[in-house]
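S.,

As promised, the nicotinamide-adenine-dinucleotide run. Input:
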Amino acid sequence: MIAKIGVIGAGTMGHGIAETFALAGLDVKLYDVDDAALARARVLIGDELRLLVEEDYVAPAAVGEALARIVTTTDLAEAVADRDYVIEAAPEKIELKHDLLRRLDALMAPEAIIASNTSSLPLEAMAEALTPERKARFMVCHWYNPGHLMPIVELSFFGNMSAELYGEVEALYRKIGKQTVKVLKDVPGLVANRIQQGVAREVFSLIERGVAEPADIDRALKFGPAFRYATTGQLEVADFGGLDIWCVVGDNLLKDMDNSKEANPVLRTAVKEGRLGVKSGEGFFSYPPDTVAEKRRQFMRRLVHQLKASSFYA
Ligand SMILES: NC(=O)c1ccc[n+]([C@@H]2O[C@H](COP(=O)([O-])OP(=O)(O)OC[C@H]3O[C@@H](n4cnc5c(N)ncnc54)[C@H](O)[C@@H]3O)[C@@H](O)[C@H]2O)c1
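Predicted complex:
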């Protein structure tokens, strides 16, 4: 049974992964090359957990208890030597991941499992740095941001590991309350990001064509398809609507829809002009600096509400 967790990289994803495991009662060691990143992670984890208390999602005592379960360190051997499962959330650079994986392989117990939270690197390319024995204990476990609130974790089952070992990791994620997706082929973006990009491509195209204002397009998504998708997946929606109807509507609409192979010019122009969204104060909407912290908190609160609601239909 997997009980001791190691998390490598304490940035955007790593801190949320450590937080989630600790909140679920597991013992976590969080490693980063940078002391300041570890300190920031601890502050962020405390803030995020306190918001969960404000929203009545966890008990007040859970904050201190979860923080006490996380040991932070800049010593890689100390972080991983006694761990059953280590997930790396280090920067998305293949050379860096190779170096890290090679060191993890040497430092970790032979039976321990290594996972990568990579968003885009193929498993096989990463696994070149590992011994054949470890390759059979290596997988992608892809979390969504923010990790402590988004239920999904995509798990690779690409033929390099046994069904039994996969089952162990799947059980771990189910135990901590995540919804796992078993991905059978190593395609870029796995499942969820591909679905998201399909939607995003058409949304950006609608902006480019001036079909509706940004607020209306987002409203159409939130209160149209996404409203259903939160409770009922696309395939079930299609079954309810009738596959004959989806077939006809597909034939009629798809020929008019965006099928480009690269990011929309609307995005490229915005990037060139320095409109990067929240981080630059301007994107499709405006974010005056004095409103950003509250807007981020509101975003988190909405996800907590969604998380609570989803317990009824998960
Ligand atoms: N940000 C996202 O939305 C998101 C979502 C899913 C998956 N991912 C994936 O998760 C991984 C991490 O992304 P992130 O957004 O958290 O990055 P990040 O830049 O926020 O954090 C990376 C952390 O790794 C640390 N680091 C740098 N070199 C290191 C090394 N050699 N060993 C260990 N730690 C090191 C950095 O100090 C930093 O704290 C990437 O593989 C990324 O593709 C990101």
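The pocket of nicotinamide-adenine-dinucleotide is lined by residues 8-14, 32-34, 37, 89-92, 96, 100, 117-119, 143, 145 (CB under 6 Å). Residues 4-183 form a domain with the Rossmann fold fold (CATH 3.40.50.720).

- D.
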